């Protein structure tokens, strides 16, 4: 998630985040890794460079292999609800541990994570392209729909981060989540085309997602789902900040959070009006799991109003809103809950994440994406 200027915090009446206590982790929590693993066979690194430009040009395309089914726990893939049982929290944790190391664009680990995205999407049965748009590289996996291939459902997360910070929550958690959902949905027969992408240069102004959105042609985008920080939760009372202006705009959610004693353990979803039905589907799936979820729907004017609601459009979903395309953002509220956001009050490492929370995010999103794709 992009850094927030001090003016934004002041405008929201927020001097500092409340100290949030991690409530999860679990036995499979792992520390940050700078492993030398380079991804799957056949993957190639691409330099990010520093030059400008937004013209998209796929530089590498690989054919669709048989999907890697992995350990599926006897799950089925014939309904959105059945797919939730296919999510493997251990795989998510392994991916987070690999990704969570300093990876500014062009760095050695940035190359490794880019390769990892390509390898995992190939293994899940997607046709993979590396979109070199001039200053960075997106990794885009496509699995064509069986009956309505001209309609696209997108799930994406940014893989870059700032120098010197592991970025486990921001956004190793989201990239690992997108790859795990891709693995699961790669086994389903989906009417609509599914695209799963790893965006570059989100931290530098949403460059990667903008390059994709601005060159997206030849198909109809049904909806774009965005993951950015999906791994941090706290069961401590009053560990969640909900600024006054947002509480006034969304009083129902403010009341729910008050009833929950201010705990930072709910899933947050931000949508524009055209994506609201998909957000409500995700909310229903999450709350069926027992996970409190809050949907904040912005009007066409509000979603691009940086003065009033800019804090809700700080990630790659904004690139689609700018073009009038339906998009929603799934996250743990970022700096309003996690004190290690951008390593400000500590290191954003994998051992601070809540595996049970992230698992619920993945299950609900897998079901919602599958439903959006027509299953």
From TrEMBL:
InterPro entries hit by this protein: M28_fam (IPR045175), Peptidase_M28 (IPR007484)
- Which keywords annotate this record? Signal
In the record, which residues are listed under signal peptide?
Answer: 1-23
Show the segment(s) annotated as Disordered: 21-70
> Does the UniProt entry include the keyword Signal?
yes
Q: Where is the Peptidase M28 domain?
A: 138-364
Task: Cite the record's Low complexity compositional bias ranges.
Answer: 21-35, 53-63
Entry keyword annotation includes Signal: yes
Bias kind Gly residues: ranges: 36-52
Q: Which Pfam families match?
A: Peptidase_M28
Instruction: From the Swiss-Prot or TrEMBL record, give the protein name.
Output: M20/M25/M40 family metallo-hydrolase
Where is the organism placed in the taxonomic lineage, from the top? Bacteria, Pseudomonadati, Myxococcota, Polyangia, Nannocystales
């Amino acid at each position: 998630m992009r850094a927030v200027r001090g003016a934004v915090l002041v405008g929201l009446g927020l001097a500092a985040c409340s100290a949030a206590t991690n409530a999860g982790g679990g036995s499979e929590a792992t520390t940050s890794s700078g492993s030398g693993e380079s991804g799957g066979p056949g993957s190639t690194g691409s330099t990010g460079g520093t030059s400008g430009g937004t013209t998209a040009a796929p530089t590498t395309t690989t054919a669709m292999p048989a999907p890697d089914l992995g350990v599926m726990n006897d799950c089925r893939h014939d309904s959105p609800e059945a797919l939730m049982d296919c999510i493997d929290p251990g795989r998510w944790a392994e991916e987070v541990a690999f990704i969570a190391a300093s990876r500014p664009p062009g760095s050695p680990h940035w190359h490794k994570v880019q390769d990892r995205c390509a390898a995992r999407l190939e293994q899940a049965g997607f046709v993979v392209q590396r979109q070199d748009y001039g200053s960075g590289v997106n990794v885009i996996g496509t699995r064509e729909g069986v009956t309505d291939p001209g309609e696209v459902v997108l799930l994406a997360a940014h893989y870059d981060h700032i120098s010197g910070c592991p970025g486990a929550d921001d956004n190793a958690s989201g990239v690992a989540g997108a790859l795990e959902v891709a693995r699961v949905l790669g086994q389903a027969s989906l009417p609509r085309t599914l695209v799963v992408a790893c965006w570059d240069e989100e931290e530098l102004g949403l460059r990667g997602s903008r390059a994709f959105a601005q060159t997206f042609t030849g198909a109809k985008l049904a909806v774009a789902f965005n993951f950015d920080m999906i791994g941090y939760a706290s069961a401590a009372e009053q560990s969640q900040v909900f600024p006054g202006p947002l509480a006034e705009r969304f009083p129902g959610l403010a009341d729910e959070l008050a009833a929950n004693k201010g705990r930072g353990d709910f899933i947050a979803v931000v949508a524009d009006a055209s994506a609201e039905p998909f957000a409500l589907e995700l909310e229903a799936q999450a709350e069926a799991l027992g996970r409190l979820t809050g949907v904040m729907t912005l009007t066409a004017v509000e979603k691009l109003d940086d003065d009033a609601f800019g804090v809700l459009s700080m990630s790659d979903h904004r690139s689609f809103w700018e073009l009038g395309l339906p998009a929603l953002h799934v996250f743990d509220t970022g700096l309003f809950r996690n004190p290690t956001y951008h390593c400000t009050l500590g290191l954003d490492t994998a051992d601070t994440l809540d595996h049970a929370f992230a698992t619920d995010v993945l299950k609900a999103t897998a079901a919602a994406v599958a439903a959006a794709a027509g299953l």
